[in-house]
Write a structure and sequence with these properties.
Blueprint: E1 8-12, H1 16-28, E2 32-36, H2 47-52, E3 60-63, E4 72-75, H3 77-88, H4 96-111, H5 115-126, H6 132-152, H7 165-174, H8 188-198, H9 201-209
Parallel strand pairs: 1-2
Antiparallel strand pairs: 1-3, 3-4
Helix pairs in contact: 1-3, 1-7, 1-9, 4-7, 5-6
Amino acid sequence: MTTQTKPIEVYTAATPNGRKITIMLEELGVPYRVNYIRFARKEQFTPEFLKIAPNNKIPAIIDPEGPDGEPISIFESGAIMKYLGLKFGKLYPANQRAQVKVDEWLFWQVGGFGPFIGQAHHFLHDAPEKLPYAIKRYKDETARLYRVLNTQLEGREFVAGDYSIADIAIFGWANRHARHETNLADYPNVDRWYASMLARPGVERGIAAAAEPKPEPQPVA
C-alpha cells in the first residue's frame, strides 16, 4: 500500500458529498486536514477555492504527494474517490471486472442517488412555495432508487462485492433518509446494510470530521 507522509488537504462541508471523502480517508487511515467551506460566507466562490474546484462545489482535495511526487488537485466526489482508491490500493478493486461493478454503482449514485434526492430535499424543505407536482416527482424517484438499491443488496453484504467506494458514496445520501422522508424499514436490505455501515468506526469518525467547526470563543471585553 502506498504511504502518505504529508496530509491530504480536504475542502468539504457537512453534506452527503462532503462526508464521502472524510469517511473514505478515515477508512484508508491516511493523514488529512479538513478545510471547512462555509456556504453562508460564500467561501465556495473565492478565487482560491475556484482554482481547485471550478464548479464551486465541495468536495475537493489537494494531494501534496500526487503522481510523480507532484501536488495534484481534484474536484468531484467520484473522481476523488477513484483516485484515492487507486492510489492506496484499498476500497477499489484491482480486478477490471470488479472495477466495472464498483463503477456502475458509484456512477449510479453520482448520477441519480444524489441529484434526485437533493431535489427532494429542496422541494420538501427549501423551496419558497410548496409545489405538489415537484414534491411527488422527486419523492417518487427517490422511492424508485431505494427499490433498486434494495434489490441489489438482496443476499449481499455490500453493494458491489467487497466493501468499496460505492458503499461509501451511497451511504452519504442514505444517511439523510429522514430529510427525504424515507423509512428505511420499507427497504429491509437497505436497512440492514445501512446499520452495518453506521457501525463502522471509520464511518463514524468520517461523519464527525466533516462537521462544521464550532466558532472560536470570543474574549470577554
